[in-house]
Specification:
- It is a single chain.
- The chain is α+β, with helices and mostly antiparallel strands.
- It is built from 54 helices and 29 strands.
- The strands form 5 sheets. Strands 1, 2, 3, 4, 5, 6, 7, 8, 9 and 10 form a 10-stranded mixed sheet that branches. A 6-stranded antiparallel sheet has the order 14-13-16-11-20-19, with no helix packed on it.
- The longest helix has 28 residues.
């Protein structure tokens, strides 16, 4: 119905919620359901009284030529016992199921298993064939009429561990013995010990496939849940008797054989077992072989073995009335392997009944087998034969599981007590020592005998009572394995019990026992039986009263009993007690309370009152030896309370219980178990609604409850836990059963516990308990104390229960009673004492203008603050998982009701505003949390869920809370400005809710805050600043949510906020539709609002722009650019805190992507806000903060290899440390680090980054890119092809323009996407103006490259071209250069990895200018190489050789000559008179080149190796010619 919500159902299959179910019971059902689902299979099973295993055979895969018999049974290695009989599957030689009607239906239920722990499922495979070894020829016994034998074959085992139930299919490996067959009987034991592994003497043959399913509950419940199992084979536990299940099963285990006195020995023995009467007649169908009943069982035949070990268990079913005449008949047969025949070898028998009337004991029996007589004997003459020859012995173990026959002689004497009346006392005495299992098994026979003795032999009253208490104690103990037999007791009471004197004798004996304090053991035994003492007494009284009153009076009682609600009382008790309940109440038709005038009822009531008095005396007795008796008295009375309402009136029962509870000690030194028992008893009787309809009884009972809880609520963890259960039951009863008058009166009493409840809850919150109930599925953690998957602790669950109780109390309490209590001195005293431990009388002497403010000063916040803070925190601590639909809605309903009840008092408290600021703050927080809670966002739910919520809980609850919120906000008046800083963001978040009523509340509160601040200060700069902060926070939250959801941010929220907020401000204020009480300043007010609207519009557009780009590496540049624009806005509007927050968020962003240089530049944005002054802010001293930022930035620049920038920052820090702080230690470290950076510059290689010019053309691009050009700084060592590929991945639909392709209007205005990418180089503004950028000649070329490529905002792209259409022979004559300079809006590298082009300049250079530039570049290059060769000639001599050869070879090929031809002629100077200066410069450069080459040759001659001497000579020859040419150059 509701998607992923957890839905619970009522008994009528309706949706369960707090409207029809107690809230605390609803919570417990959710908790138990969640815990059950989250726990492993094995743990679930341990929580159930009955367990069942469903096994279904699927297939068998192994090699065999014979039909197989597969016997599945349960085995316990710990006790070396077979737990169940066998589930049998018969397969043909081809491994097909023999009975085709059973295909798909071969499944069995192994019922009533105590525990799956250390239990194995065993599959024993038996061959049905002739007497031949495994692997013999196929068809060895296939002849018609040939005798087939059961032959041992193989075994498979499977441990029943939780992993076995994880899959629907389980595979069992099949192993067979490789040696003698004598080991077959114990093979399953050895395999279990080896954990299914191959053991010595075995071989693996194949597999058996089955399916396993574990179930809990009764067999009847299992079959009701899965009707398809009704035809399954039901296999009972051999050693367990189930309640209300008659059993009479005999299990015979063939153990082994032994030789007798006869010397004739034989092998290949088969033992046949049958069941015979004393007449020799065979009882048919008594032997259960799998699902079939047979007249005879035949054992396995072990080849060539005379003393085999079978270990086979046979299930024998004999009618109970035939046990005395039946015996087991064993026939030992010799099997012939030649002709496949059998011959009788010996016979024996075992009588089931013994001479004393009991049946066979559970033990090992040796059956003596004799030589068969030569002549056929008639009937069962062998039973009385005297002379026989002992030939063989068969050892068998028998186990009888029966509820109909008796193995214990003492129980037999009790059942036949009339034959032993003379020794009745001895019989009853010996009964006390009988095996409890035998007693419980014979329950239906023993109970009538004992009550018959009680009625007929009053002298044995005490002995019978002792026997009954023994029996009752076994069944009453919930920790006993016999506890399930309480259903047998109830069945006996309902159907068979008829004693008319028990109601007098049992209570008297019980009183005598508990009054005998000298015998604590006797008292404890009697107290354990209290429940059934009362139950049997009531049943006896019922019969006696009916007999005395007559049929007419009984008819009137039945009519009175038919009033509605009578049966629900017992059912309520059932739900708490965990019992099946007051079972005889379902079969009886009238109550004893309607027959109170009869003598039996009066007598029983008097005796029960005497019992109550004796119990009070017992629990008040301080004798240490009676501690156990005290606990038994209280705990067993808790189970008995549900029975007492059958005879007592509500007033009588309430008085008895209150007096008894008051008598139980509550002192801290009292044993904790007694406290627990007392509180449990209180919970049991509070679940009974006997007190719910009479206000006087309600007040009497709840006064006692409150008094007891007050003394236990805040002691130990266990006592607090028990107190919460008591209160939960009380509140559930008040919610579902109490009359209106009783509920109002009763909860007025309980309200006095509210301060203590809140105190206890606060204590557990401060302990650091896990507050998120989602931990019930494995996710709750206390940081640093438990692993993330730890289950909830007891403290966590207790905190949840306290939350439920508080919510339940808020939802139930009467509004008038709540108000009266809040204003009462008693309430104030309790709250103050619980919170502060102050003197109530002193605080009560203080007074103010209202009841609410009576004792609430600045130190004592008062009841309302405590309740509101607790309620508000219920959202913060996530009381319930979101999937607990009913509990979440209950939480909202309760808190809304609390808010309504508090509103009048809060409005009144505004008069003492300063004293109650914290109170109002908590209430506003609660209101905002309520309105924006996700579980109330109807607009996000399915139509079905919306309909369900509206139908069950009325209209949108958020609107009701909005009404409460607005009423208090409006009542604040000028005090609104106090809360603007804390709640302006919460107000604006209301505008994000897609619900007009909530949005109207938000805008009303915002405008009201503007108005009141303007009235107070003449402006609303503070509101403006806080609004900007809040909007930025909202945008950040939306971004975080999108990041968690791994998707793009939803910009519709910001767009909707912009549209609604700004339009409402314009329509309500600027259009004069709102009456503004600001006097003559109304115009100025509207002007400021207009400015605010403009600011907010710009901010929201920037935030929207930022949210539109996904937070992925591809869109990193766009997001960083949008962030920088937002930061510029924040800086301009003075939002420095927000500006700094974005700075550090951007640093974290770059840090995650290892953009170290960008991270350093970003961090410096924060430093630039801080002067080197001693002033301080929230971060500390400005100077110290700026210094620490510098150090961190240096770390980032170091990682980015921007060591020059590191040195610049260090130089600035040096002055700070040296001239201001005199911190020489830090200065020393800084200088050492600076030295390291210089070494890095000198020694380490660095690579110049690629710079690329990228243009985005076409209407298909976002507006921030469309029609714009950017300079990008590539990654280290990134080539232009890799960079291009990166952009193609970002815009897969875009078309790439060639670098030389012109951009047309089609590209700019078209609907598509076109990208132009060109390589570009760093330049400077000087170069764009035609000036040369000079570097000191000593500066290394590597350093020059770094200087050129850092802090650049001018870039150049140059191309060469010829103006002449005809190509000249001299390339210098017509080679022109076109330079395009691009100016950007920011320097690179910087915060952003790209910069937008804001200006372009185009410059043409003539061929002469081009030639001069090339000469200058060549001279600088050769000079640099010469300097490097001087410092390290061995490494750089090769480079020097190549540089010199390149210059001189160029001259040989006509370098200077071509310069002369192109420029040094009269025609050129006449055509370009302005170039004379350039010609003079070229002459100087050529001569300088000659001098540089001359220096290089000298250095080369000095250091060149022998193999380069010829090159040196060649260069010297050619240089002479070059030198002559250079010296001869002159102007024409």
């Amino acid at each position: 119905l509701l998607g992923l919500d957890v839905l619970l159902r009522t008994s009528e299959s309706g949706l369960a919620d707090h409207l029809n179910t107690g809230a605390f019971a609803l919570y417990e059902r959710h908790r138990d359901l969640t815990a059950t689902r989250s726990q492993p299979t094995q743990i679930k099973q341990r929580g159930s009284s009955s367990r069942h295993l469903v096994v279904e055979f699927q297939d068998c895969k192994l090699t065999t030529h014979d039909p197989l018999e597969l016997n599945f049974f349960l085995y316990s290695p710990e006790s070396d016992q077979v737990v169940s009989t066998s589930f049998q599957v018969k397969l043909s030689a081809s491994l097909a199921i023999m009975d085709v009607t059973q295909i798909g239906r071969l499944q069995a239920i192994f019922a009533n298993i105590a525990s799956f722990d250390h239990l194995f499922l065993v599959c024993q495979l038996v061959r049905c064939c002739g007497l031949h070894e495994f692997g013999g020829k196929k068809g060895h016994v296939a002849a018609s009429g040939a005798r087939q034998f059961r032959r041992p074959f193989a075994v498979a085992v499977l441990p029943l561990e939780p992993s076995a139930f994880e899959s629907t299919r389980a595979i069992m490996n099949v192993f067979a013995p490789t040696g003698a067959e004598s080991t077959f009987g114990d093979l399953h034991k050895r395999l279990c010990e080896a954990h299914e592994q191959l053991t010595p003497g075995t071989q693996r043959l194949g597999t058996v496939s089955i399916s396993l399913r574990a179930h809990h509950g009764t067999t009847r419940q299992l079959l009701a849940r899965e009707p398809e199992l009704c035809n399954s084979f039901l296999i009972h536990n051999m050693r367990e008797v189930s309640p209300n299940t008659p059993r009479n099963d005999l299990y015979v285990t063939l153990s082994h054989g032994e030789y007798g006195q006869d010397t004739k020995k034989t092998s290949n023995l088969e033992v046949a077992l049958s069941v015979r009467l004393d007449t020799g007649e065979v009882l048919p169908n008594c032997i259960q072989c799998g699902s079939e009943a047979q007249p005879e069982f035949r054992s396995m035949v072990f080849l060539h073995m005379a003393l085999p070990t079978w270990k086979e268990t046979i299930h024998v079913r004999v009618p109970a009335e035939e046990f005395s005449r039946v015996h087991l008949y064993f026939e030992v047969r010799h099997c012939s392997g030649k002709d496949q025949k059998v011959l009788p070898h010996a016979f024996g028998f075992l009588q089931l009944a013994q001479f004393d009337g009991t049946v066979l004991q559970n033990e090992l029996h040796t059956v003596e087998c004799y030589k068969p007589p030569r002549e056929v004997q008639q009937g069962a003459a062998y039973l009385s034969a005297r002379e026989r020859t002992l030939r063989y012995r068969v050892c068998v173990h028998t186990l009888l599981t029966s509820t109909q026959v008796v193995q214990n002689v003492h129980l037999l004497y009790l059942l036949k007590w009339k034959k032993h009346q003379g020794e009745l006392e001895s019989v009853l005495s010996r009964f006390m020592y009988a095996d409890p299992a035998d007693i419980v098994s014979g329950l239906q026979n023993i109970l009538p005998a004992l009550f018959q003795i009680l009625d007929e032999v009053p002298a044995q009253r005490e002995a019978v009572f002792s026997a009954l208490t023994l029996l009752f104690g076994h069944v009453s103990d919930k920790n006993s394995k016999f506890h399930p037999f309480h259903s047998d007791m109830d069945t006996f009471i309902a159907n068979s019990f008829s004693s008319s004197s028990a109601y007098l004798l049992l209570p008297r004996s019980f009183c005598d026992a508990i009054k005998d304090v000298s015998n604590p053991t006797r008292a404890c035994d009697a107290l354990k039986a209290l429940y059934y003492v009362v139950k049997f007494s009531l049943a006896s009284c019922h019969a006696a009263a009916a007999a005395e009153a007559g049929p007419e009076a009984v008819a009137e009682a039945v009519a009175a009993e038919s009033s509605p609600g009578a049966l629900s009382e017992s059912e309520a008790a059932d739900a708490i007690a965990g019992e099946t309940g007051d079972r005889e109440a379902r079969s009886r038709n009238w109550s004893l309370s309607n027959m109170s005038q009869t003598t039996p009822v009066a007598e029983l009531k008097k005796l029960l009152l005497e019992i109550f008095g004796a119990l009070r005396m017992l629990v008040q007795n301080p004798n240490p030896s009676l501690v156990a008796a005290h606990q038994h008295a209280v705990s067993n009375l808790a189970d008995t309370v549900s029975l007492l309402q059958d005879i007592f009136t509500p007033v009588e029962l309430g008085g008895c219980l209150c007096r008894l509870v008051n008598a139980i000690p509550s002192a801290p030194e009292t044993p904790p178990a007694l406290h627990t028992a007392k509180l449990l008893m209180m919970r049991r009787f509070l679940a009974l609604p006997f007190y719910a309809h009479d206000p006087s009884v309600t007040q009497q009972v709840l006064s006692m409850v409150v008094r007891v809880l007050r003394s236990h609520l805040d002691r130990t963890l266990q006592e607090t836990w028990d107190c919460t259960l008591v209160l939960g039951t009380l509140f559930d009863t008040a919610q579902t059963e109490m009359s209106e008058e009783s509920r109002v009166l009763g909860l007025t009493e309980v309200l006095s516990l509210l301060p203590q409840l809140l105190k206890v809850r606060t204590k557990f919150l401060r302990r650091g308990a896990v507050h998120d109930v989602a931990s019930f599925v494995g996710a709750a953690v206390v940081a640093g104390t438990r692993p993330a998957n730890a289950p909830p602790t007891r403290t966590d669950e207790l905190l949840m229960q306290l939350n439920v109780l508080l919510l339940q109390l808020f939802s139930l309490v009467d509004t008038t009673g709540f108000s009266e209590y809040i204003c009462s001195p008693e309430c104030m005293d309790r709250f103050v004492v619980e919170r502060k431990g102050s003197n109530p009388s002193l605080l009560r002497s203080q007074s103010s203008r209202s009841g609410i403010t009576r004792a609430v000063g600045r130190q004592a916040s008062g009841p309302l603050l405590t309740m509101i803070s607790s309620a508000a925190s219920s959202y913060a601590v996530k009381c319930f998982p979101a999937s607990w639909f009913a509990m979440v809605m209950f939480q909202h309903t309760a808190l809304l009701r609390l808010a309504r009840m508090m509103l009048p008092h809060l409005v009144e408290a505004v008069n003492g505003f300063e004293e109650h600021r914290e109170l109002f703050a908590h209430f506003f927080a609660l209101s905002f949390d309520f309105i924006t809670h996700p579980s109330l966002a109807l607009e996000h739910f399915s139509t079905t869920k919306q309909t369900t919520i509206v139908e069950r809980y009325g209209s949108d609850m958020r609107l009701e809370m909005c009404s409460v919120l607005w009423q208090l906000w409006e009542a604040m008046g000028p005090h609104q400005s106090v809360f603007v800083k804390e709640f302006i963001g919460r107000v604006l978040r209301l505008l994000l809710v897609n619900q007009p009523g909530i949005q109207d509340t938000g805008i009303d509160m915002f405008i009201s805050a503007l108005k009141h601040q303007y009235q107070a200060t003449g402006s609303f700069k503070a509101v403006r600043a806080l609004t900007i902060d809040a909007l930025d926070d909202i945008a950040a939250e939306l971004a975080d949510y999108a990041k968690e959801a791994s998707g793009p941010a939803d910009t519709s929220h910001l767009s909707a906020l912009e549209g609604y907020l700004l339009s409402e401000l314009e329509s309500r204020i600027l259009s004069n539709s709102l009456e503004i009480s600001v006097g003559a300043a109304g115009t100025e007010f509207r002007e400021q609002v207009a400015a605010l609207i403009a600011d907010l519009k710009e901010l929201l557009q920037l935030l929207d722009h930022l949210q539109r780009f996904p937070d992925t590496p591809e869109w990193e540049d766009e997001r960083v650019s949008a962030t920088l624009k937002l930061m510029d806005y924040l800086e301009q509007t003075g939002q420095n805190k927000k500006y700094i927050r974005h700075v550090h968020a951007l640093v974290a962003h770059h840090f995650q992507r290892s953009n170290w240089t960008q991270a350093g530049h970003t961090l410096l944005l924060h430093a630039n806000l801080l002067p080197w002054e001693p002033r301080t802010d929230q971060f500390g001293s400005y100077s110290a903060t700026r210094g620490s930022i510098y150090l961190k930035a240096i770390d980032y620049f170091d990682k980015g290899k921007a060591w020059e920038t590191c040195i610049e920052l260090i130089e600035e820090l040096q002055y700070h440390y040296k001239a201001r702080l005199f911190d020489y230690e830090s200065l020393s470290k800084l200088l050492h680090r600076e030295a390291t950076f210089f070494d890095n510059i000198r020694e380490q290689d660095r690579f110049v980054h690629l710079f690329a010019l990228v243009g985005y053309y076409g209407q298909g691009f976002p507006s921030v890119l469309r029609g714009k050009e950017f300079i990008y700084r590539g990654y280290e060592l990134e080539r232009i092809t890799a960079f291009t590929k990166r952009l193609q991945n970002k815009f897969p639909k875009a078309k790439m323009l060639r670098p030389t392709e012109a951009v047309t209007d089609e590209h700019i205005l078209g609907d598509g996407q076109w990208i132009s990418i060109k390589t570009i180089y760093p330049s400077s503004e000087m170069e764009s103006q035609g000036q040369k950028r000079n570097f000191p000649p000593e500066m290394p070329e590597e350093v020059q490259r770094q200087v050129i490529s850092n802090n650049v905002d001018v870039f150049c792209a140059q191309t060469t071209f010829r103006k002449s259409a005809v190509k000249s022979d001299n390339e210098f004559k017509d080679l022109w250069t076109l330079k395009q300079f691009y100016f950007t809006d920011r320097k690179l590298p910087g915060v952003l990895n790209r910069a937008e082009v804001i200006k372009k300049i185009t410059v043409e250079e003539s061929p002469l200018e081009n030639a001069v530039a090339q000469l200058e570049s060549k001279i600088q290059s050769v000079q640099q190489i010469i300097r490097l060769a001087e410092k390290n000639p061995e490494k750089k001599i090769q480079a020097l050789s190549m540089a010199l050869n390149g210059v001189i070879d160029a001259e040989v090929n006509g370098g200077v000559k071509k310069y002369r031809e192109a420029f040094f002629n009269t025609a050129y100077t006449r055509a370009n008179p302005s170039h004379v200066v350039l010609l003079e410069q070229m002459i100087v450069l050529v001569k300088s080149m000659a001098q540089v080459v001359n220096d290089g040759l000298a250095l080369h001659a000095k250091h060149c190796p022998e193999n380069m001497k010829q090159l040196q000579q060649k260069l010297e020859r050619f240089f002479e010619k070059f030198k002559a040419e250079a010296e001869s150059m002159a102007l024409p």
